[in-house]
Amino acid sequence: MTRPWDQGRADIEAMLADGRLDQVPPSREQANLLVSQARAHVQSALAIADTDPTGGYALAYDAARKAMAALLENQGLRVTSRRGHHVALYEAVLAQLDPPMGLRIRPFARMRTRRGHAEYPARHEPAITAHDVLDDTAKAADIVSLCDGVLDHMPVFRREAP
């Protein structure tokens, strides 16, 4: 029997209880598909950084998001479609991997905000530049690599008996 993953267990249990996460059948196949898509998004973001920085940034963000979703899919967890689901995704992954890997995941929170400003621009928000895309695509690629690298080490999440 596989040893349960204990780090962040209380946070995951609370997120399941309040409906921010659902338990689903675990799927390494789905996790692998999401990681593959995330890697493709990284390459696409880099390819269009100069010609479509906003689109490139969205792809970089989606790469990081899909990689973190892959981690949860592999565990049999999925964020619900309720408002704030990208925040819940970040919190669920961070709870389980920080420490020691939190510094590598934390850029996602800033990227989420920056992407939101690009999707719904305000006059005072600076436009996303190719430089922004290149910088944050490197961070997204690191998140993809990290999540892919821990898939084999995080077993299916099993709820504790009440």
Describe the protein:
It is built from seven helices and two strands. By secondary structure, it is mainly α. It has a single domain (about 25-150), classed as Nucleotidyltransferases  domain 2 (Four Helix Bundle (Hemerythrin (Met), subunit A), Up-down Bundle). The model has no long low-confidence stretch (mean pLDDT about 95).
Can you give me a brief rundown of this structure?
The protein is built from 7 helices and 2 strands. The protein is mainly α.
Q: From the coordinates shown, what is the CATH architecture? A: Up-down Bundle
Principal-axis shape equals globular
Compute the number of helices: 7
CATH class: Mainly Alpha
Portion in strands: under 5%
Number of strands: 2
CATH superfamily: Nucleotidyltransferases  domain 2
Strand order of the largest sheet: 1-2
Element string (H = helix, E = strand)? HEHHEHHHH
Mean pLDDT: 93
Mind telling me the C-alpha Rg? 16 Å
- Kindly state the percentage of residues in helix: 55-70%
Number of domains: 1
CATH topology: Four Helix Bundle (Hemerythrin (Met), subunit A)
First and last CA, distance: 21 Å
The profile of the biggest β sheet is: 2 strands, antiparallel
The secondary-structure class comes to mainly alpha
- Which regions are unreliable across 5 or more consecutive residues at pLDDT < 50? none
